[in-house]
Amino acid sequence: MNQFIKVFPAILLAFNGVVYVAIGIIFSLDAERWFGNVGVTLADPVGFTELRAVYGGLMLAMGIFFLLSIRVRNWLVPGTAFLLISYFGLVLARSQGIFLLGQSTPVIMQIYLIEWVCLILSAIALRMVLRTANQI
């Protein structure tokens, strides 16, 4: 169990890093198709430039940060904390759309459930990292 506590946060960061890098690349290269898959349509195609920047560029940068957090000394705590914070923000914002505004599709609900699982796993991982670092 002690070994699991040491490796789980890094495994979670690596998995999320790869997923975020992949999402960043996919949304940068073919934004129209992938946003269409989740039901996003735009009044002006120029809006895809903004969506590429956020879902392509920002997701790519986050993925690289998560991967670097595994390798760079003293980045494991900030990387895991940022993973938790980012999933908290995603769950919070998506909850507003789903429950307060009533805007949902089956794909959105699947993404929402995945984000909840990742939020919980990130909280567990951060606790493990802090416990290992004797910070709590």
Biggest sheet statistics: none
Helix content: over 70%
Structural class, by secondary structure, is mainly alpha
State the separation between the terminal residues, measured CA to CA: 19 Å
Summed over residues and divided by their number, the pLDDT gives a mean of 92
Describe the structure.
This protein has 136 residues and is mainly α. 82% of the residues lie in helices and 0% in strands. The protein contains five helices and no strands. It has helices at 2-29, 31-37, 47-71, 76-100, 106-132. Helix 1 (2-29) packs across helix 5 (106-132). The radius of gyration is 16 Å and the shape is globular. The model has no long low-confidence stretch (mean pLDDT 92).
Summarize this structure as a short list of keywords or feature phrases.
globular; mainly alpha; 136 residues; single chain; 5 helices
Please sum up the structure shown.
By secondary structure, the protein is mainly alpha-helical.
Write the layout of secondary structure elements.
Blueprint: H1 2-29, H2 31-37, H3 47-71, H4 76-100, H5 106-132
